[in-house]
Amino acid sequence: MMxxxxxxxxxxxxxxxxxxxxxDRIVKCYNIAGRHIKINFLTQELCQQLAPALAHLSSPExxxxxxxxxxxxxxxxxxxxxxxxxxxxxxxxxxxxxxGVNLRSGDAxxxxxxxxxxxxxxxxxxxxxxxxxxxxYRNALEIPYYERGAPLRTLFDWWLDAQxxxxxxxxxxxxxxxxxxxxxxxxxxKSTTAISCLRSERLNYIxxxxxxxxxxxxxxxxxxxxxxxxxxxxxxxxxxxxxxxxDNPKTMVExxxxxxxxxxxxxxxxxxxxxxxxxxxxxxxxxxxxxxxVGAGKLLLGLASSTIYQxxxxxxxxxxxxxxxLAGLPCYELHVGTDLDKIPPVVEELIAKHEET
Length: 357
Known about the structure:
Layout: E1 4-6, E2 26-32, E3 35-41, H1 44-50, E4 67-73, H2 88-94, E5 102-105, E6 112-116, E7 122-127, E8 132-137, H3 145-149, H4 153-162, E9 166-169, E10 171-174, E11 179-182, H5 190-196, E12 204-207, E13 210-214, E14 220-223, E15 227-230, H6 232-238, E16 257-260, E17 272-283, E18 290-294, H7 296-310, H8 316-327, E19 331-336, H9 343-353
């Protein structure tokens, strides 16, 4: 387990000086879970690395943002980070060597901060009261593929929690008015199930690894990323038609194959779906895909544990929302067969059983 060090973070409001921002900075705006987010990318390289996963949620810049994120890179920009001079965070940001600690501040009365060591080397800072966040990378060109597929996860995790939503490690698939939450640890068939449903004429894709859950009324899963990941041999053998969507074809043997489904599948990408059932995939040995109804506790164990593992700070309130979500949905175990063409019709059948009219 990595060492975690508590740090003090200044309470003052922070903003980068206008002099620092380059004239050619890139501004992108997005609508996530009905909230408007503005992202200022310092360099073209940062935008190229991080923006593709969010492109399906682009929105007009004219709207007043609910959150502004400044995304920076490089040693020079470290001088403009909001960390007290001489603090551990300040030292690490300005140190040329590899980091050896995680830095974390979770006090509700202070801005939140997290530092990640290599290979995914970044610092995140959020002040929800000021609706302002900063993400700093040492080098944009060294951002790993999984960070490009799900960028700014730490900031979205914190910020969505402040919006009474949960940044959830799960997938979601929907029709026009109903959908299924797909849960489970990595390697259990969650991504295979979600991505195979792209071939269905009726099913829409909300997300693969992460969605934002809202249980304040009817339970809704909101899209955050248009990306997906699968093992290379799975893509080549089972889903070769998706090879043109792979972003990292030269390295997908060492890594997983990373997909960006926008713009190639933009008609299948939807910003949200109302959830009417939940599914736990289990990799079976047969050709066909079948299902059986199970208790919510079986799915909650997988959903809560994987969300906690992926998160930097899961609150008791967030765990309550996860419990409430599964307690309010019919839950199924999906035995995923080797014939992936047979997965979408079974998922359609499950959703249709509980479809909203």
